[in-house]
Design brief:
By secondary structure, the chain is of the alpha/beta class. It is built from twelve helices and 13 strands. The protein folds into three domains: 69 residues, Orthogonal Bundle (Fumarate Reductase Iron-sulfur Protein, Chain B, domain 2), CATH 1.10.1060; 91 residues, Rossmann fold, CATH 3.40.50.720; 123 residues, FAD/NAD(P)-binding domain (3-Layer(bba) Sandwich), CATH 3.50.50. The strands form three sheets. A five-stranded parallel β-sheet has the order 5-13-6-7-8. A four-stranded parallel β-sheet has the order 3-2-1-4, with helices on both faces. Strands 9, 10, 11 and 12 form a four-stranded antiparallel β-sheet that branches. The structure holds flavin-adenine dinucleotide (FAD) and iron/sulfur cluster (SF4).
């Protein structure tokens, strides 16, 4: 439910004006206390489990309280932790996302020397490159990372992708253990004609561009977002906020079967996104650039999506964003299996 944080304790500490004590309670259980308070889907996690829900009262805003207390520690640069007495052990961490960094913090606390190897030029993985920017800013994300580095002193080597069997062998030779925290891959393919046209973007890559270019990204015209998960909602909301009009969210199943949280869908609707349900893309049409998407209507046949023959229709577009999930097979695993 929560990340094992003692929520009642930190709320009591805030209530008794012990904000730094509350921050310590949070960070003892979760090294991304500030970021999680900002980005967690609290409505379905801690706040969803709040007893107030049973009495029809608005739940306590646990996420907001959490990031409030955590921010106090960051603002004051409060030193809570330090590296443990050297154990003589060394660990290589691949990937400076939340998983890799949390691992590095924990190991450093136990006196284990840690080097992190990160493919990109910046840390925190999808917190910086994927989470919708209205939830957390780059400055906030990087401030928490810098604070953690000051607490524990692990090293991060940026622009350092581990990509060959030799890289792995080298790590095996130089370290006692390797932690792999590389997350998932790029946006998964749809396997339909036209998906590689110029103006057909992956949702994860699209949001990454927004985050890196601080919203100086232009997306004029009509955008069709394909998918029904939270990333599809983020991509649709962000397109609408960038001025795209109209923004059409097309999902191959029904509204009820959509994986996205209800509040994420509501956010998208509130910025003008229109939805098309039971519509499965079969082709993206265009020469160099996509000009339309051809869909077929669907129905649910015992849990399976079934195309309804003769129900094809097209929607014109200026951009297509594929929000079809992240590919699971990071190429690195193939090297290790081999
Ligand atoms: C678009 C999007 C929006 C999201 N929004 C939310 C949200 O609002 N709230 C929420 O709680 N969660 C959200 N998530 C999920 C959350 O971002 C992930 O659960 C979290 O980032 C996973 O952390 P991780 O460390 O496992 O992986 P990642 O964050 O993916 O980090 C992996 C790191 O490893 C690096 N790496 C990969 N391969 C290599 C290699 N071979 N060598 C070296 N480095 C490598 C990557 O560059 C990256 O920095 C979202 C995810 C996406 C895709
Ligand atoms: S905000 Fe809620 S769900 Fe997220 S870490 Fe904190 S207690 Fe857990």
């Amino acid at each position: 439910m929560s990340a094992g944080i003692d929520i009642p304790l930190f709320i009591r500490q805030i209530n008794s004006k012990n904000d730094l004590g509350a921050a310590k309670t949070i960070y003892d259980a979760n090294y991304f206390g500030f970021a999680c308070g900002k980005v967690c889907p609290t409505e379905v996690l801690c706040e969803g489990a709040c007893v107030y829900n049973h009495s029809g009262v608005k739940p306590i805003e646990i996420g907001r309280l959490q990031s409030y207390a955590a921010a106090k520690a960051l603002d004051k640069d409060k030193k809570f932790y330090s590296a443990g007495a050297p154990s003589g052990k060394k660990v290589a961490v691949i990937g400076a996302g939340p998983a890799g960094i949390s691992c590095a913090c924990e190991l450093s606390r136990h006196g284990i020397e840690v080097d992190i190897f990160e493919a990109k030029s910046m840390p925190t993985g999808l917190t910086l490159h994927g989470v919708a920017p209205y939830k957390i800013t780059n400055t906030e994300t990087l401030a928490e990372m810098a604070w953690l580095e000051r607490q524990f002193g692990f090293r991060v080597f940026y622009n350092h992708r581990i990509s060959t069997a030799q890289d792995i062998e080298q790590l095996e030779k130089n370290y006692d253990a390797i932690f792999i925290g590389i997350g998932l891959g790029e946006t998964a393919g749809l396997h339909i004609p036209g998906e590689n046209l110029e103006n057909v973007l992956g949702a994860v890559e699209f949001i990454e561009q927004l985050r890196l270019h601080q919203h100086r990204v232009s997306l004029p015209g009509k955008v069709i977002v394909l998918g029904g998960g939270n990333t599809a909602m983020d991509a649709a909301s962000e397109s609408a906020r960038l001025g795209a009009n109209p923004v059409l969210l097309a999902y191959r199943r029904s509204r009820e079967e959509m994986g996205a949280y209800g509040f994420e869908y509501d956010l998208a609707k509130n910025v003008g996104v229109k939805a098309l349900f039971n519509a499965m893309p079969v082709e993206i049409i265009g020469m160099d650039r996509a000009t339309a998407v051809r869909f077929v209507r669907t129905r649910n046949d015992n849990g399976k999506v079934e195309a309804i023959p003769g129900s094809e229709f097209t929607e014109t577009c200026d951009w297509v964003i594929k929000a079809t999930g992240q590919a699971k097979g990071n190429p690195l695993f193939r090297l290790i299996d081999g």
